[in-house]
Amino acid sequence: MTNKKVYLEIVKQLREMISADNLKSGDKIPSERELSERLNVGRSSVREALRALELLGLIETRRGEGTFIRDFRGNQLVQLLGTFILQDEKAKLDVIETKNIIEMDFLRLVLNKVDKNKLSILKDLVEDDQLNDDQFFYQLIEMADNYLFSRIWLILKDYYNSLNLSKVEYNRNSYFLLLEALIEKDEQKTLDAYRQLRNLSILTDKY
Amino acid sequence: MTNKKVYLEIVKQLREMISADNLKSGDKIPSERELSERLNVGRSSVREALRALELLGLIETRRGEGTFIRDFRGNQLVQLLGTFILQDEKAKLDVIETKNIIEMDFLRLVLNKVDKNKLSILKDLVEDDQLNDDQFFYQLIEMADNYLFSRIWLILKDYYNSLNLSKVEYNRNSYFLLLEALIEKDEQKTLDAYRQLRNLSILTDKY
DNA sequence: GAAATAGGTGTGGTCTGACCACTGTAAACG
DNA sequence: CGTTTACAGTGGTCAGACCACACCTATTTC
Questions:
Q1: Residue A33: pLDDT band by 50, 70, 90 thresholds?
Q2: What DSSP state is assigned to residue B87?
Q3: Tell me, in Å, how far CA of B36 is from C1' of C18?
Q4: Long-range contacts of A177-182 (CB under 8 A, 24+ apart)
Q5: CB under 8 Å to B128, separation ≥6 — which residues?
Q6: SS3 category, B203
Q7: Residues 6+ away with beta carbon under 8 Å from B130
Q8: B96 near B199, Cβ under 8 Å?
Q9: d(CA A148, CA A71)
Q10: What would the pLDDT profile of B148-190 be if each residue is shown by its tens digit?
């Protein structure tokens, strides 16, 4: 029964190894040759496993040095998938809609954790034209303090920007209104300000 | 300049090849040996690329037959990542919070496109205990008609399930309340019903 | 003639050995 | 003591070999 693929078994072994030795990001894992010997498999099989994990962004290899565990949290794999998937028109509309929804979500999150100081600083930045739209929302999303959520937004942002939509010129005033609404902790007003910012009306009636 | 890794180049080539030939899921891609020859690289490098894509779930290989493009939609990569990544507690909380937020989002989406027939059918299914929680929400999310959003939820669901949280026993009644609220197009009532279903209260005050 | 069989071909799966490019370090040198 | 050099270890790549398996086809068998 040579049923199971060796490289998958190696992936599994590696996972256990990492867990057992409590390895963290930055730590070195055994060399390909050593793994090959220890696990009684060919080096090519080890490499297949490592390359797969590398593409997933779980490890990092440096020639002449070795293979290291990576900080998983920036899983770029979704972007990889994105370039494979996003194609038809409906998908584009979905991106736009989803991005808007997510942005409203973290506006609500921010409402719960309003930090007037940070918002004030942000206001100054807008005043000095220091930020573009992405950067503005990135500042906000950081306040929401949810890493996973940030990731989703970052990916959506990339998707969105890759759509090459005609850029709408926003006026600074819209951002001010939004920030003020946040400071006032007024959800309705905040979301209204957002809709105005994005020129939303019909489709997103409830949003 | 042997800078770029060959296997990454192969991944890229494959992507272009798939795009150019308009290959869809189920289609066969050239054999390892043929790719090796056509791209002037060693077969082992081709294999490294293919194994990586396989682990990502983008292709499927069948010994004796060949390598085929897979239906991307079934993202099993999440499980892999899940077991690798989700470690610290904050990350887990983020997953939970995010999943809840997303679910509320598509409840709102559904509110805009209420289809009483479908909701009625869903009600019957719940009545007959045909669905578990995931399936219930999957039915709802389909009504929201946003593929990208569905994908995000599916991923979150997988993450969530890989957390191995103690299962809360939901009672059917909560689902009924939720469905009724949807049918009535009452946003407040819908979200309240959802919170009750998930036993949310404090943290998600605004939600 | 139809069905069962055997063989051939093509495919992925794995291993081995070889060589290259690069890094870090210890030994040799000045 | 500082600099240079040589070497060992590591990842990167390739070529060739063999195995296991799936499929098709020609042959045999009934």
A1: very high
A2: -
A3: 19
A4: A178/A107, A179/A119, A179/A122, A179/A123, A179/A126, A182/A107, A182/A110, A182/A111, A182/A114, A182/A119
A5: none
A6: coil
A7: none
A8: no
A9: 14
A10: 777 778 777 777 876 767 766 667 788 888 888 988 888 888 8
CA distances from A196 to A154, A192, B49, B90 (A): 22, 6, 46, 34
CA distance A79 to chain B (A): 12
Higher per-residue pLDDT: B57 or B72: B57
Rounded CA gap, B152 and B180, in Å? 26
Kindly report the bases of strand C lying within 7 A of a protein C-beta atom. Answer: 10-18, 21-24
- B187 contact A CB<8A: yes
- Is residue A72 within 8 A of residue A57, CB to CB? The reply is yes
CA distance B56 to chain A (A): 7
Residues 39-68 of B with CB under 7 A from strand D: 40-45, 48, 62-65
Residues close to nucleic acid strand C (C-beta < 7 A): A 2, 4-7, 36, 40-45, 48, 62-65; B 2, 31-34, 43-44, 47, 50, 61-67
Residue B8, CA atoms < 13 Å, CB-side half-sphere: 10
**Contacts of B85 by beta carbon, 8 Å cutoff, 6+ apart:** A72, A73, A75, B91
Answer whether CATH 2.40.10.10 is correct for domain B6-69.
no
**In CATH terms, is domain B77-198 a member of 1.20.120.530?**
yes
Q: Which nucleotides of D are covered by protein (CB under 7 A)?
A: 9-17, 20-23
Pick the CATH number of A83-197 from 3.10.450.50, 1.10.10.10, 1.20.120.530, 3.30.470.30: 1.20.120.530
pLDDT (tens digit per residue) in A124-162: 888 887 778 888 888 888 888 877 777 778 767 766 776
Q: What is the overall mean pLDDT for chain A?
A: 78
Each domain of chain A, given as residue ranges in start order, spans 6-69, 83-197
Whole-number pLDDT of residue A206: 40
In the three-class reduction of DSSP (H, G, I as helix; E, B as strand; rest coil), residue B115 is classed as coil
